[in-house]
Amino acid sequence: MAPSRAGAPRNGPVLVADLGPGGRLLPPAPQPRIVRSDAEWRALLTEEQYRITRGKGTERAFCGLFHARKEPGFYLCVGCGLPLFSSEAKFDSGTGWPSFFAPVFEGNVETAEDLSFGMIRTEILCARCGAHLGHVFPDGPPPTGLRYCLNSAALTFRPAPPEGAK
Fold first, then answer.
1. pLDDT digits (tens, 9 = 90+) for 124-164
2. Whose CB has fewer CB within 10 Å in the chain, the N or C terminal residue?
3. pTM recorded for the entire structure
4. Which position among 77, 126, 129, 149 bears the catalytic label?
């Protein structure tokens, strides 16, 4: 599984890979964590986005905007815009949620043990703003064997830049 940094201080900088102006992934660099009040999150997010990313909710299977999306691009955190996953790592898991075998950069997601609903699962969170994204399971395809199972409401999509664009 992805390494857990859930115990890391939530107010210090985090090493993440962001997108540059041309839509290309930049090398990892330290960035400040994004911390907002509950009122600020409620003003920024829709009710469903808030319920999922701040309240650790889950959307129903096969209902999310991105579970069947196929075009090339990046899936970003709805709370802070950090690129989390690429369409190059997306696969159809048959679960009804967008599934990926690896993040764009391991440091862009954090993990935490989730004991809710009488299960032991590994929660995945945005490393920059702490948004709940979904869970990771050890039943994915090669090369990682992992399945990052995400809520569409926790994501936005940015199309890949056209070939040859700088």
1. 999 999 999 999 999 999 999 999 999 999 999 999 887 75
2. C
3. 0.90
4. 149
